Amino acid sequence: MARDATEQLNQPETTTSFSSPAFPPPPASSPALGCRPMANTYKIKIAARLRPPIPGELVDDGVQVEHRDDGTSSISVPNPRDLTQVFKFPFTSCYDPAAGQEEIFENDVRPLIDIVYNGVTVTVFAYGVTSSGKTHTMQGSRSEPGIIPRAVEALFDRQSGLRRYRSELAVSYMEIYKDEVYDLLVNRDNAPKLPVRENDRGQVFVANLSAIPIDSMAEFERIYSQASKNRSVASTNLNRASSRSHAILTVTVTLTDPTENKTLSGKLNLVDLAGSENNKMTGNDPSRMAESSAINKSLSTLGQVVHALNKGHSRIPYRNSKLTRLLQDALGGSSVGLLICNLAPGTKFRQDTLNTLNFAVHTKNVENKPVVNEKDNKPIPKPHFAAPPPPPPKLVAAVLPLPSSSSHGGRPSLVSVPPSRSSSSSSSSSSRVPRPSVGGFGMSSRLSQLMQPPPPPQAKTYTLTDKEIDERIARAVEAEVARRLAEHAIERAREEEVRREEEVALRLAEELAKRDVKRKGKAPVPQHESLPSGTLTPLMRREEDVSGDEFKKRLEELEQKFEHSSREVQMVDVLSPVSRKRTGRAYVSLARTHSEKGNLQLALELYRKAETYVPDNIKLKERIIEIEWAVKNGRALEPSPKRPKKSKSRKTKDSKHSSQTSITSEESARPSLKGESTHTSLHDAHATVGDPSTSSRQEVAVFSGSFSGLLPLSPPKPARSASPSLPLSPTRATRPTSASATSTPTSHCPKTAASLAATNASELKEKENVRLDLTSDAEDDEGLVHVGSPPKRAIDEMQGDVRETPPRHKKAAKVAPVDETDAGDGPWEQWQPFELGKRR
Ligand SMILES: Nc1ncnc2c1ncn2[C@@H]1O[C@H](COP(=O)(O)OP(=O)(O)OP(=O)(O)O)[C@@H](O)[C@H]1O
Questions:
Q1: Does 399 carry a binding-site annotation?
Q2: Is the shortest distance between the CB of 128 and ligand 1 below 6 Å?
Q3: N or C: which end of the chain has fewer CB within 10 A?
Q4: Where are the beta strands (DSSP E) in 642-724?
């Protein structure tokens, strides 16, 4: 029988910080009831898995897994912009194409089973581009069962070892399809959209999601195979059974200790994310495009959440998508996390692979604080005196310190209580002791007041008449209504202020653009060949001295105002995307001025400020890293790398100049890449050059740390940019960076006056409608790293190795078709359940 999974979440439950990062398994005779808080943090563990080529795919060594003798392993990917460089990503677990399902499960997932039996929530999620093998890893096939069936089987194995304790397993399964949540355990045709809610302990849950108790593996298989058929799957050019939704399977383990009267509740969330998609490669039709857009958007939000956690932002944008809301606990929350990065082989996926690994590098710095979910089932102590039970409505409890014998026992509440909370409050009549509310307006605190033993002598004083009680209730209601109205008024005033400030910021940015246009109209842009190589050329070169200060002052005022009006509401959080972009642009403009004046420290601060408004702008990140390096080493700012406009000459130039390429470092001067081996500490990255194993190749190893400038964190931008009429689209978002932030390419392309003149305010406005990059194409030329518009070569690279890329109009035909006859194993729904204990 299905029961509502929210039931459990709404029960009062204590959560205590989990003590041991090692999570020792509890002895069979004594489950983890003794586990006590010690507030340890626990970083998300990363495993990377490279799948083998599937039939029809070109085989090359675009991505490689390296295992070293000391037991460490890493993934190597050549830099798409400079093939002589290799990026290395070391992770605790790296699996090559030969690795089997069992190996991954035994190494990385089985140890988590005991953690679940400690009453902790564990989340395992598979992340990667479409067709990289996420579903294969999580679900698997009949002959190669994946993590999901193996984990459930391991949970049953573990359960059978328990003697003294009662334990129950229940399963829920949902999908997030186009940012709506559906229950996969109910028939697809009748499945309603389910709301995502938060209970009074801040736990996010899906209301009305079924949770089916399971007693055996066979029962689970029956349910799971049926539910898998409900999942949204479709065929694309890259995957004949591509998941169109994120799927989250949750197994809840409830352990009850009858003697102690306590319950531990551990959870295992197994998440098969949908893969980020490049619509050019997938050949999506309009309906697939809409799905793809939703997928990319939610994954982009996931990237933003990880980015914000890494940067220690005060506001983490969990609420921007259902996916991140539901994964909130796994990302910077109270669960233990394992991220499996699935990688597809070959140069065709190289940029996607780099994006995935970049996401992993960011994620491995995210810290969680696991907690043990423990419930005390002791019966609620009853008041000594013979009085009718306390009236349920919370206002009555709030007004009357103690129930009077003459009080109206069943008086209905005058203030409506949301259903989820009602069900929570109704637990007061159950055997569970409500957890004291943490300073909220929760029912629990009221109930705990009621639970206080009455002071005996004063008991006589509670002889209120009905009229007095009514009066008190009326007063309380009035007070409560007034409080809420005041809250709303404040909220409205705040929104109004935000709106006004947004308008001001908008006007500022518009003014900036107008001046720029005006200036260009009056004075022709100087020949850039005459500029010192690499000097940033600001849009407002001549007027910056004055306007720069003005704008800076204005922007600072704005920010101060926001800081004062509310600590929690940051300006960046409340501006619209367009305003954010404009504000960011204003900061960049100022920063350029100061950078040109040689005031790098101030320029750096301004660039960083700009970054808070446009956190995904890669060129900006690169610029920050360059200036950081220059400031740290007391050097003048080195020339910004330029790309030649003609793609055909690029490769020659790249290779020609590669020997002069240098890698940035905060602590050391830029090392030459010729035959040296230098460790750098720029965001914990280091560069190793001349590794004998790679002979002539340069290697850039990327360790933990913010690593913010190297590669785009977010997956391709979705939606509107995916429209065929908007050619800018997802390619821009995944455009490869110049020889990356850790290196300084040396090919230069002088900017032309024509490229600058191409930009005007109206163009800018148009472009704003289709993308949110900080700068326009011409501004690219003008400002930071890339030169040339459109970046055709970069687009080509993103589609695959330029060597393999045909002319663009033929690209679709060049995408390796997936062999429809690829027999493999059938998907899960075609399985015959395998027997408990039987593994391949
Ligand atoms: N390790 C592996 N060994 C053998 N085949 C694999 C492996 N990983 C993936 N595959 C095969 O590659 C194809 C794509 O895999 P899968 O459907 O799991 O990708 P996905 O990342 O879930 O894609 P999507 O995001 O589009 O759903 C499937 O045919 C699958 O059987």
A1: no
A2: yes
A3: N
A4: 662-663, 685-689, 698-702
548 is in an annotated binding site: no
How many other CB atoms are there within 10 angstroms of residue 183's CB atom?
24
Regarding the beta carbon of 51 and ligand 1, being less than 6 Å apart is answered yes
Q: With the C-alpha atoms ordered 270, 329, 375, 23, is the resulting torsion angle positive or negative?
A: positive
Q: How far is CA 836 from CA 100, 750, 825, 839, in A?
A: 20, 68, 20, 8
Average pLDDT over residues 134-155: 94
The rounded distance, in Å, linking the Cα atoms of 479 and 834 is: 62
Domain ranges of the chain: 383-452, 495-641+709-799
Count CB neighbours of 691 within 10 A: 14
pLDDT over 70 (residue 94): yes
134 labelled as ligand-binding? yes
Annotate 163-197 with DSSP letters as a single string.
Answer: -SSEEEEEEEEEEEETTEEEETTS-TTTPPEE-EE
75 class by beta-carbon count within 10 Å (0-12 exposed, 13-18 middle, 19+ buried) = buried
Q: Is the CB of 275 within 6 Å of ligand 1?
A: yes
Residue nearest to atom 31 of ligand 1 (CA): 136
Ligand 1: residue whose CA is nearest its atom 15: 133
Q: Indicate the pTM of the whole model.
A: 0.51
Bond preceding residue 258 cis, omega within 30 of 0 = no
Which atom of ligand 1 is least distant from the CA of 236? 26
- Name which residue leads in pLDDT, 590 or 33: 590
Closest residue CA from atom 12 of ligand 1: 133
Rounded distance from Cα 233 to ligand 1 centre (Å): 13
Region of 343 on the Ramachandran plot (φ > 0 left; ψ -120 to 50 alpha; else beta): beta
496-510 burial: b if 16+ Cβ within 10 Å, else e: ebbeebbebbbebbe
140 lines ligand 1 (CB under 6 A): no
Look up residue 213 and give its two tokens.
């108790």
Contact at 8 Å (CB) between 786 and 780?
yes
Distance, CA 715 to ligand 1 centroid (Å)?
A: 19
Is the beta carbon of 317 within 6 A of some atom in ligand 1? no
Is 595 touching ligand 1 by the criterion CB < 6 Å?
A: no
Average pLDDT over residues 24-41: 44
- Predicted-complex ipTM score: 0.98
Instruction: Give CA–CA dist 539/21, Å, rounded.
Output: 52
CA dihedral 549, 555, 559, 564 (to 10 degrees): 70
Question: Based on the number of CB atoms within 10 Å of its own CB, is 491 exposed (0-12), middle (13-18) or buried (19 or more)?
Answer: exposed
Distance 304 CA to ligand 1 centre (A): 26
Displacement of CA 638 from its chain's centroid (Å)? 34
The closest of 489, 614, 609, 511 to 560, measured between CA atoms, is 609
By most ligand atoms within 8 Å of CB, the mutation choice from 131, 231, 244, 276 for ligand 1 is 131
- Paired with 687 in beta bridges are 700
**Amino acid occupying residue 149:** P
Q: Could you tell me if the CB of 54 is within 6 A of ligand 1? A: yes
| Nearest atom of ligand 1 to the alpha carbon of 275 | 25
Mean per-residue pLDDT of the chain: 64
* Higher local confidence (pLDDT), 291 or 433: 291
DSSP labels for 375-431? EE-PPPPPPSS--PPPPSSHHHHHH-SS--TTS-TTPPPSS---HHHHHHHGGGGSS
Per-residue DSSP letter, 349: G
Dihedral sign, Cα of residue 45, residue 179, residue 272, residue 119: positive
Q: Are the CB atoms for 740 and 700 separated by under 8 Å?
A: yes
